[in-house]
Amino acid sequence: GENVEQHPSTLSVQEGDSAVIKCTYSDSASNYFPWYKQELGKRPQLIIDIRSNVGEKKDQRIAVTLNKTAKHFSLHITETQPEDSAVYFCAAQSGGSSNTGKLIFGQGTTLQVKP
Amino acid sequence: KAGVTQTPRYLIKTRGQQVTLSCSPISGHRSVSWYQQTPGQGLQFLFEYFSETQRNKGNFPGRFSGRQFSNSRSEMNVSTLELGDSALYLCASSFAGGPGDTQYFGPGTRLTVL
Question: Are B16 and B22 in contact (CB under 8 A)?
């Protein structure tokens, strides 16, 4: 079945450093890849997303890259700040009537940014 | 616009009981998806409703069911509760549920089964 693998499970960086989280998906029909940030006790919130017809997307300090051939996508956070500390989830969604509303999530990465 | 809301926020039940959770989507959104979040399994898709119809279902037993009303509000029901059903249940709404349609999450209902 569909699967999304996410690495690493935990990541600790110094404030100002960059952080990279990587995900691999199994369903070649996947065409939408959102990233969510979940702070402790809060709801997941979308921080950036990318569609399969785009290789890279950037929003201020956050960027996502997609390699369709390798079925791999990554989140890059530059100049990390303590408020970036949270759990980050990657997800994938495929087209077709059997996949409406269905996000397949990775296991999550706990990012800790040390002041 | 008001965000996605869920009620109740916390529930404590005992094994064998049943429970109903409610989700009110963002105004204008017609698709509501439900997810179960646990430390061991992460976020897992339960089902999705659109225009009062279940369009998609994840790999959960039949004890998990749901419905959607004409105003797009959705409920999910879990019957014959088991200890393993303890989890955070999240709903998410989107305009139509297709790829590229951003899903906005509610705050979740924390269910504890004793």
Answer: no
Query: A79 burial class (0-12, 13-18, 19+ CB within 10 angstroms)?
Result: exposed
Contact present, A30 and A52 (Cβ < 8 Å): yes
pLDDT class for B2, splitting at 50, 70, 90? confident
- Nearest 5°: phi and psi at A80? -60, 150
Question: Are B43 and A46 in contact (CB < 8 Å)?
Answer: no
Task: Give, for all 115 residues of chain A, the pLDDT tens digit.
Answer: 689 999 999 999 999 999 999 999 999 999 999 999 999 999 999 999 999 888 999 999 999 999 999 999 999 999 999 999 999 999 999 988 788 889 999 999 999 999 9
- Give the chain B residue whose CA is nearest to the CA of A87: B42
CB count within 10 Å of CB B52 equals: 13
Q: How much of chain A is in helix, strand and coil states, percent to nearest 5? A: 5, 55, 40
Which positions in chain A touch B108 (Cβ < 8 Å)?
A: 43
- A43's tokens: 């709801």
Distance in Å from the first CA to the final CA of chain A: 41
Question: Which one of B55, B106, B107 has the shortest CB-CB distance to A100?
Answer: B55
